[in-house]
Amino acid sequence: MTKSLYLAAFAATVLPGLAFAQSTVTLDSFSLDDDPKPDVAASEMRDCLLDASACASNEFSGGTKFSLDDVVNLGVVERKPKPPAVAGVPVAAIGVTDRTKAAEPLPTIDLEVLFAYDSDQLSPQAMAKLSTLASALADPQLQGSKLIFIGHTDGVGSAVYNRELSRRRADSVARYVRSTLRLSPSQIEAVGVGFDYLKNSRFPDAAENRRVQLVLVPGA
């Protein structure tokens, strides 16, 4: 067999097998979007805390507005001592500025955390929602604030009973978030207010009244 015939036979028998054995690599073999899609709920929670006026969620918005004065009166935050007098600045002027800030609404969102009847144990659904909240609170823009969880109930039952139940439920939420974010006890507080601040006062027994509210106190 001549050399040219040998090469022709080799090409006809061996090369097709090699070509078949090789894998074809195309752009479709690569993922150009390796980053996971953002958690929409966590982003919405974060955005509502950063700018209440832009919050479009019926669940997260529309709740009671709490100021620094309010949370101080609830006994969960201590008012910081007045700053020392500043040369050239009237004391009265400093006081007006402090009082104005103390009366301004603090960042807040409502969370519809569902509990079984007469229970303060978190359900799997509640834990999932609180894990989402923890993701939102991990945002650098929300760091450095004290977390105040305020428990609310509907208007059914006695005031004393509902206040205690709302406190226990707020405690459950606070413990879960504190454990998830590994916060120190001084960074988080819980308090119950029963049905003192109904979200839907027209229907006191409405489910939306049974909620836990988060209030952020910057720099507390």
From TrEMBL:
PROSITE patterns assigned: OMPA_2 (PS51123)
Signal peptide: 1-21
Gene Ontology cellular-component terms listed: cell outer membrane
Chief location of this protein within or outside the cell: membrane
Annotated compartments: Cell outer membrane
This protein's UniProt keywords: Cell outer membrane, Membrane, Signal
Transmembrane segments: none
Domain OmpA-like: 102-220
PANTHER family: LIPOPROTEIN YIAD-RELATED, STATOR ELEMENT OF FLAGELLAR MOTOR COMPLEX
Protein name as it appears in the record: Outer membrane protein A
Encoding gene per record: ompA
